[in-house]
Amino acid sequence: MGKKELGLVLLIxxxxxxxxxxxxxxxxxxxxxxxxxxxxxxxxxxxxxxxxIITGGIELSIGSMFALLGVVFLDLLVERGIPWPVALxxxxxxxVALxxxxxxxxxxxxxxxxxxxxCGLLIYRGAARYYTNDAxxxxxxxxxxxxxxxxxTAGRSFxxxxxxxxxxIVAAIMAVVLHKSVYGxxxxxxxxxxxxxxxxxxxADRVIAAAYMISGLxxxxxAVFIVFYTNSVSPSSHGNFYELYAIAAAVLGGCSLRGGEGxxxxxxxxxxxxxxxxxLVNLLGIPSSLNFxxxxxxxxxxxLADRELQKRRxxxxxxxxxxxxxxAAAVAA
Amino acid sequence: xxESLLELRSITKTYPGVTALSDVSLxxxxxxxxxxxxxxxxxxxxxxxxxxGVVAPSSGRIVIDDVEHARLTVPDAMRAGIxxxxxxxxxxxNLDVAANVYIGREPLTGGPLRLVDTxxxxxxVAPLLARLGVDYRxxxxxxxxSIAQRQRVEIAKALSLDARVIIMDEPTSSLTIxxxxxxxxxxxxxxxxxxxxxxxxxxxxxxxxxxxRVVCLRDGRMVGALAREEIDxxxxxxxxxxxxxxxxxxxxxxxxxxxxxxxxxLRTIAFPDRQVALSVRRGEILGLAGLVGSGRxxxxxxxxxxxxxxxGSITLGGEPIEVRSPRDAIARGIYLxxxxxxxxxLVLEMSITFNVTLPDLWRYARxxxxxxxxEQKTAEIQSRRLxxxxxxxxxxxISLSGGNQQKVVLAKWLAMRPRLIILDxxxxxxxxxxxxxxxxxxxxLADQGVAILMISSDMEEVIGVSDRIAVMHEGAISGFLExxxxxxxxxxxxxxxxxxxxxxxx
Amino acid sequence: MKRFLxxxxxxxxxxxxxxxxxxxxxxxxLAFVTNAAADFWTIARRGTEKAAKELPDFEVKFLVPSxxxxxxxxxILDDLLAGGLAGVAISPVxxxxxxxxxxxxxxxxVLFTTDSDAPQSNRVMYVGTDNVAAGVQAxxxxxxxxxxxxxxxxxxxxxxxxxxxxxxxxxxxxIAGSKVEVIDVRTDNIDFVRAKSNVEDTLxxxxxxxxxxxxxxxxxxxxxxxxxxxxxxxxxxxxxxxEDQATLRGISDGTIExxxxxxxxxFGYQSIRLMAKYIAGDKSFIPxxxxxxxxxxxxxxxxxAEFQTMMKEMLRK
Lengths: 333, 506, 317
Description:
The complex is a heterotrimer.
Chain A (H helix, E strand, L loop, with lengths): L1 H21 L6 H26 L7 H18 L4 H24 L5 H20 L4 E2 L9 H7 L1 E2 L2 E2 H19 L1 H11 L1 H6 L4 H27 L1 E2 L8 H11 L11 H20 L7 H42 L1
Helix pairs in contact in A: 1-12, 1-13, 2-7, 2-10, 2-11, 2-12, 3-4, 3-5, 3-10, 4-10, 7-8, 8-10, 11-12, 11-13, 12-13
Chain B lengths: L3 E12 L2 E12 L3 E5 L6 H9 L6 E6 L2 E3 L4 H6 L2 E4 L11 H5 L6 E2 L5 E2 L1 H15 L14 H14 L4 E5 L7 H16 L3 E5 L3 H7 L2 E6 L2 E7 L5 H9 L15 E11 L8 E7 L2 E6 L5 H8 L7 E6 L2 E3 L4 H7 L1 E4 L3 H5 L6 H6 L7 E2 L2 E2 L1 H14 L16 H13 L5 E5 L7 H16 L3 E5 L3 H7 L2 E6 L2 E7 L5 H8 L4 H6 L1
Parallel strand pairs in B: 3-10, 3-11, 6-9, 9-10, 15-22, 15-23, 18-21, 21-22
Antiparallel strand pairs in B: 1-2, 1-4, 4-5, 7-8, 11-12, 13-14, 13-16, 16-17, 19-20, 23-24
Helix pairs in contact in B: 4-5
Chain C lengths: L1 H24 L2 E6 L5 H16 L3 E6 L6 H13 L4 E4 L8 H10 L1 E5 L10 E4 L2 H15 L4 E7 L5 H14 L4 E8 L4 H14 L5 E4 L4 H11 L7 E5 L3 H8 L3 E6 L2 H16 L11 E3 L3 E4 L3 H13 L1
Parallel strand pairs in C: 1-2, 1-3, 3-4, 4-5, 5-11, 6-7, 6-8, 8-9, 9-10
Antiparallel strand pairs in C: 10-12
């Protein structure tokens, strides 16, 4: 697994070194903390997206979930004055519930993931806008996210933003789940070859549905973090395109849209690369209008680098296979 | 014999660390059928890729029409009239027969619009189909054709290219007996028209029938050739493996006992109005013969919980059971080695270890986390027991040969507690050596008291390996044969739905 | 065939349902079309609601495009025309390239522009802010906050919209000749996370930055949050536009120098009221230049408390 992420790490280091040479402030403590914060923010939901992609599916509704869960969360917390642990729990459950609906439609109704989550993208966005009558929601004239939850989500410990710490914790847990657990193994098996997995007695439907539920859970968690980062939610634009950033991070990190491939470390690296790119656009004074073009170029470069490494790996495997076949023939003769 | 159409001179192909072909020479004359035999990994595929222009030889010469080439390109090969009929057919199911034949070189109309002239294309294909004596038309969608029919589409395609040499790679591996015979007739006809054929097969019977000459590859070398009158089984097998193959049948160590799997009045989705009744006893290998499409695979899928049963009962060890999913089946010790091992049997990209432990992963897990050491140990034990040829168990299944892949599928189930093992075409596309090992393993399992149901279209296998044979015809069992009654003739009679005694009278 | 029939039938059914009440009541329809979804427009909506109460003979619609694009606005206008329309006030996303559809509307109904003008179209008149003038006001605030000059950075959602460009133009006009220098305009595509990180990165890249200006209503609060988090509150001067709650809070606590606010309530109220008047035949109120400028106001520490109270009341209703 290590080799696969190596290309990405190299790319990050090269881009980082070039940026730091042009503008040394790139590696200043302030900038690193700011980047860590954003990496945490984007990494959380990218991991969820990655799991779904490993099943061979796709989750397009993450950005709209942020808008819907975000406005509901602010409504519960600010307008209705519900205690934060309850509001937080409700949002996480809400995310899981939306994921469960997707899972149900995909595995039981046999609809394509793209279609199901595209409908989700439209429905949740519309629902969020209707919910607030298109108004931007915030913490009101009163004090904004002061208190425990604000500290937990937007605060820092030892100078490290809590979003980043949350990402480290979630990534560690998900890495164990994906790479060490029975469920993780099933996920790869289903993603690579659903039929063979079924023939091995795996309940593929349940495995797939669970991936969407985990993605929903992480989307709910991210929704709360993002609310505390922006302090307000404009339902028409909040989280627009975020599913695409997540897909980009996952693909950069080695997830194949055909399923069955990818690692948590890779997805985190993909997120880092994307955020470094966003940061360097500002730090190098590249016009904002070029931002997306730069992002596209970086993704393309990352995927091409990965492809080259992949080719070498495949050649190595083929070699190994050929060597394995040789003694076999010798034994038979 | 007329002068050679195609000649390979001292072809060598090396890959880093491996010599795939070493000093191979072969010439093919007009209207000649050359049987090419050799175990998997002997270099047959590489040789064919050299001919097709896909692989460039490291040294040697290819002579076509007295012109020497150091290598061929794909267009070179096509221009020279070299065509392939592949083991895995390369057809577009969503298009019709004519479109498949002319794919990539469609006759055009409409000038600059470059529209496909469908009518002309069909008119061009129709005579080719007539020549092959097929029972479908140029506008039949390929999706509606059987494997044998599709194969003839490939042959039609070769003819439309004015092929002078047609290379057939395991053309009968998915065909029934009658379909195979029909193909052999087509080959005879092609030969009569001056087309040369290189016929690659593990089915020595067929080679014996159709080949004018047999050449054998072993470890990348040409190890021998047999003239028409010299071709027989024993010689061919000796050339391939360098030793004689023992008789296929391994007698059981102890008699079969009741209490295996009993199926009563089972109705399947393939034949909803027919009923299947059969019992596989503990310790016996029951061969299940029949034509392709007779409902054998559906029966296997139903027993394994993939297809839902429409009625009837299944009893395992005297206890009636219901199988709603493969999970249910596996929990009860009913295991299936599926027909299509690459699609259903293995997750090819995963390692041997991961494949072996996949059905029973919870056994290697604590608190939901997989104990990598324990599963590797099991994989190593099974891999040694089955003599899987691999450097280690971390090797991805995709890099193994067909026979070794099949052993990994078997290892999945052997690591568990089998009671009924269903093998669907267990040795299709597998070389002779590995076949023998798989048969020995089946016997070993049977001797341990496992009931074994072996579906096979390979007559040699059904007759050689089974303790008893059940024959299926149109969704029902048309008869059982005890060893004393085993014969190709009897199996065939039952497979086409005729009663045995009636046939004897006639 | 069946496949195509279902959506057609559903569409037909929907249009019957939507058209039903309009036909039944026989009221004339006046519409107000915004350029995006924002609090700003919620206040304008209050204005249209007030006007609607005064005009019982009119059905007043308030429409918000799903996307802030000319295409989406065109769709809304086409739908309105199809449903029968007496008058519409619109804030065109891209006035320069919307002349055709605007003139089509003007040929069938009374057309007002609001918030953002389209002078080359056949609109009857414009009700709204002079964004260049508003930019000049903000520029004056900047000059006052930075008497010794310095580098400033501007932040905005997108430069597609004319109002953003006009505000920039006004600011540049006002600071011309002073020692204040605009480094760049950073855009964020109305992504709040991006809006905030743009500010963070600017603070990193230019440690000597003197002032930050938020051109859209949400930009100023994001500047406010980022500056506070960086511990630079008070050291970097913040000037904004519009009346986001956090902006007003920042003015109260002295972190933000001031903001230039429009009076969207008046946009909504005056547009609807004057369209009704125009339909009734009274054209006397139209000024010679066809511009009815609703002046912008500067809110700073001196009047922020009073303004907050007024806003609370406006949004509470």
